[in-house]
Amino acid sequence: MDNGTEFSYWNIVSDKASQSLYIRSTTTLDRLIAEEEGTQADPDAALFSFETNPDNHSTSMLSFAHEHTSRFLALLTILDPEYQEMCVGYYLLGKTEEQLGRIYGRSQSVTGYEIKACITNLAMSAALGEPTRDNLRTILDGCQMETMVIQDKTVSLSHLLYLFIQTRSFKDVADVFRIHRPHIRRLLPVVAERLTNSKNVKEAALGHLINRVLYRSDPATNAPKERQYLKLQDPPVVGSFEIDVTAEGFDHLFTSESDPRF
Amino acid sequence: MILYRGNRNKLTQLSWHCLHITSTQLTEVLRSLVRALKKATDDIEVFVPPADHSSEEHYVFARSQNPQTIQRLTSVRGIQGFACQERLVFDGSKGSEPTIVRTPIRVPDSEVQAMLAKARLAHSEQAQQIRQGSFVRIRDGQARNYCGHVTKLNSKRAIVTISLPTRTLTVDTSRGNLLDLSQVPEARQLYFYSEAIERMLTEEPEALLSRMPD
User: Fold this and answer.
1) What pLDDT is recorded for position B169?
2) Where are the beta strands (DSSP E) in chain A?
3) What is the pTM of this model?
4) Burial of B83 (0-12, 13-18, 19+ CB in 10 A)
5) ipTM exceeds 0.85
6) How far B93 CA lies from chain A's nearest CA (Å)?
7) What radius of gyration do chain A's Cα atoms show?
8) Inter-chain contacts counted by CB atoms under 8 A, chains A and B
9) Residues of chain A contacting B178 with CB distance shorter than 8 Å
């Protein structure tokens, strides 16, 4: 994935906004688990976050990955292969952000940021479900945004968004609705921001999806990256039975495990 | 595993102190223990028996000519202190109450040597089980917990190839750092094979291909 594209996304969505969306995405996962198990989700779940309540195991992504491994892996398939690997490494194998960063050629902080972004994407996609036209209409009806007047023309926003998500082209949408293209280009970020700030999870998820489509290239049309090869060498001290603590390469012993309780 | 600093020959015949560890993060405790051993100025030897990492209770054995050196290890995060024998003592004087007296357990060298020989044998046998083409998990180091196949092997070292969807990692490591997982069926030999995956595949065998990442 192009790092530059990912960063432009994060620059546009401010730190504060993305962080709150991330926190809400974790509580969304909690609700989804409860729904799947047929239990009642915590009514105060919206008040919880992993940062403020790390002991709430039901909201821990780590326990979700280990207790619902099948569901976790199924969710991952919406991500790019590289991000799938990173999430598997972090949540299932206990790799730290630093270790993953070394393998994937990123700094620790960028790796951490990307893993959080992945979790936001996973939860938002799970909350939204398939972005069909009917699904979009139901959500937009709920927030009185379904019908919109643009250039004196009444348009169905769900239809417009559905087309944009399918085509990822302002021009194609403008041609269908016979609207000046810049109007569409200016409208969509405003709609996305309004939906993202909504208290309703489905509306926020739709806003997030529009943002993703707006600011990220389509992974389906990206040329596949060349396979990368990486060589790692452990010092002799790793795997020995008798170890002199003053030996060279000692830092590679007892490699840290991630503590993904966020 | 034995961790030592200085001349171990000076310590033969000395009895061992037993240190109690209470932590689910044993690796982190051992990492801190190693840092503390590095700072030690006296000869010291620590035996770490093979442990069940899912357990919270662990014991390690340490010996040194200087008791202060061992005492300092109890300040390592995760080490609760010396494993002690508790005795109820009552001196019989008027108005006195029975009190609990804790005495650190000293384990005779012969007992620890027996455990050590067993652990050394298990470690050696495990390394000998590895064959070219074996499916293995890397136990420590930069590629810790990744699984792959052994592509080259000599008496001490092994080259493990880990095939991730987007890249191939080639890890040169010692044979003792590998856990043989050859009993895992070929269809389940994934780079992220773990207990969680095994559990999932046992519960939902049909999910194997449809739900795996690429």
Assistant:
1) 95
2) 147-150, 153-156, 228-233, 242-244
3) 0.76
4) middle
5) no
6) 49
7) 21
8) 162
9) 239
Say yes or no: A63 contacts chain B, CB-CB below 8 A: no
Distance from CA of A250 to the nearest CA of B (A): 9
Asked whether the beta carbons of residue A255 and residue B207 sit closer than 8 angstroms, the reply is no
> Which one, of A151, A146, A184, lies nearest residue A167 by Cα?
A184
Are the Cβ atoms of B204 and A70 closer than 8 angstroms?
yes
Q: How many helices (H) and strands (E) does chain B have?
A: 5, 13
**C-beta separation of A110 from A97 below 8 A:** no
Tell me: the pLDDT tens digits for A107-130? 999 999 888 888 888 878 878 888
Using the CB atoms, write b or e for A105-124: b if 16+ within 10 Å.
ebeeebbbbbbbbbbbbbbb
232-251 of A, contacting B, C-beta below 8 A: 232-234, 236, 238-246, 250
Tell me whether A151 touches chain B (CB under 8 Å): no
A234 vs B1, B141, B204: nearest CB: B141
pLDDT in tens, B111-154: 999 999 999 999 999 889 999 999 999 999 989 999 999 999 99
Is residue A77 within 8 Å of A88, Cβ to Cβ?
no
* A163, amino acid identity: L
Distance, CA of A197 to CA of A206 (rounded, Å)? 11
Burial label, A228 (beta-carbon count in 10 A; 0-12, 13-18, 19+): middle
Lowest mean pLDDT among A83-87, A216-220, B197-201: A216-220
> Which of A85, A232, A241 lies nearest to residue B123, judging by beta carbons?
A241
Task: Specify the range with the lowest mean pLDDT, choosing from A7-21, A192-206, A240-254, B155-169.
Answer: A7-21
Task: Look up residue B199 and give its amino acid.
Answer: R
In order of A21, A39, A50, B200, the CA distances from A205 in angstroms are: 9, 23, 19, 29
What residues contact B8, with CB distance under 8 A and at least 6 apart? B43, B45
Query: Which string of DSSP letters, residue by residue, matches B128-165?
Result: HH--TT-EEEE-SSTTTT-EEEEEEE-SSEEEEEEE-S
| Mean predicted lDDT score pLDDT of chain B | 87
**Is the four-CA dihedral A183, A185, A190, A192 of positive or negative sign?**
positive
Mean pLDDT of B66-93: 87
When scoring B54, B121, B193, B211 by the number of chain A Cβ atoms within 10 A, the one with the most, hence best to mutate, is B211
